[in-house]
Amino acid sequence: MGLRLGIDLGGTKIEIAALDATGAVAARKRVETPIGDYPETVETIARLVEEVEAKLGMRGTLGVATPGARSLATGLIKNANSTCLNGKPFKEDLEARLAREVRMANDANCFALSEAVDGAARDARVVFGVILGTGVGGGIVVDRRVIDGANAIAGEWGHNPLPLPSGEDRPLPACYCGRRGCIETYLSGPGLAADHAKVTGERLDAAQISKRASSGDAACAATVARYEERLARSLALVVNVLDPDVVVLGGGLSHIGRLYEHVPRLWGPHVFSDEVRTLLVPPVHGDASGVRGAAWLWNDA
Questions:
Q1: What are the distances in angstroms from CA 233 to CA 50, 108, 158, 244, 268?
Q2: Are 67 and 8 found together in one domain?
Q3: 88 domain-assigned
Q4: Does residue 113 sit within a domain?
Q5: Which entry of 152, 156, 184, 245 is 20 to 30 Å from 68 by CA?
Q6: Mapping DSSP to helix (H, G, I), strand (E, B) and coil, where does residue 109 land?
Q7: Residue 206 lies in a domain
Q8: d(CA 194, CA 188)
Q9: Does some domain include residue 115?
Q10: Quick check: 139 and 129 in contact, CB under 8 A?
Q11: 97: domain CATH number?
Q12: 221 shares its domain with 244
């Protein structure tokens, strides 16, 4: 096993990390994303790779964590919030520029892979990685390999409907995807804030709600409790279908510490088993999981 390079391509920053044979970071750098400029995005990534390889005196494999996904029908990028990527042959262009094969996966898959290989779920066989942030994403890793699925949407649980919506879950919120009542509309950061505003009339962001809940604010604590119950229902659906050994939470809302104690208490009645052995854990690598997971896309090399 040699040098593995990972790129995390974000809307505002591009980060590169080089992992040695042990998984230790040999080099790391972050630069601003050339927003709206596709050719310069490709060139910026290529320059980062060349700079790191020159510094370390060796060539490595390259994996990239991307927003959106690569269409199986066309090979072009779709659904990327970095919109200049959409409709572009990003993989092929980067491979041509760097004269090597490039492996790509979306950021949720890379997060799950990072935590499965040498993070919070390193000893688990089946891992479900969750992103709870501006949106809600997910990735599945089995035996340290990302599962893409027949339609390249494996793990994308955020656009399934919230299970068993009750009176306080209604009316079902509209989602940007065109549906109503998607898990993402409840469990994303904006979803948590919208729920709090609906019930209390108070406009706070997710971080403020969590902080106030920890400080004893009753209304914010009630909002977080509703969030926990919805998260428990939604993750129980995943447990019933996938039956993972470990669920790892990532994204901004993964910092709400009480989730790891309360949610496993709440998901039991919704899981089709007399015992739930699935663990719910926080990430080890956190924000670094995207770039590390991208590098680990070559963990079979």
A1: 46, 20, 13, 15, 9
A2: yes
A3: yes
A4: no
A5: 245
A6: helix
A7: yes
A8: 10
A9: no
A10: yes
A11: 3.30.420.40
A12: yes
Residue type, 183: I
- DSSP structure string for 110-167: HHHHHHHHHSTTTT-SEEEEEEESSSEEEEEEETTEE---TTS-TT-GGGSBPSS--G
Q: Are residues 68 and 11 in the same domain?
A: yes
Distance CA 29, CA 287 (A): 14
State yes or no: cis peptide before 171, omega within 30 of 0.
Answer: yes
Number of domains in the chain: 2
To which H or E segment does residue 94 belong?
helix 90-98
Domain membership of residue 78 as a residue range: 4-106+288-295
Question: Does 68 lie in the same domain as 146?
Answer: no
Contact by Cβ (8 Å): 77, 102? no
Residues 59-109 pLDDT 10s:
999 999 998 888 889 999 987 877 899 999 999 999 999 999 999 999 899
Amino acid present at 147: I
Could you tell me if 131 and 188 lie in one domain? yes
State pTM to two decimals.
0.92
Query: Do residues 56 and 144 share a domain?
Result: no
**Is the domain of 277 the same as that of 146?**
yes
**What average pLDDT score do residues 223-232 get?**
98
Residue of 301, 296, 291 lying closest to 141 (CA atoms): 296
Q: Whole-angstrom Cα distance, residue 103 to residue 87?
A: 18
Confidence of residue 152 (pLDDT cuts 50, 70, 90): confident
Q: How far is CA 300 from CA 1, 49, 163, 277, in A?
A: 9, 20, 37, 29
Q: What is the CA radius of gyration of the chain?
A: 20
126 and 251 fall within a common domain: yes
Q: CA–CA separation, 78 vs 74, rounded Å?
A: 10
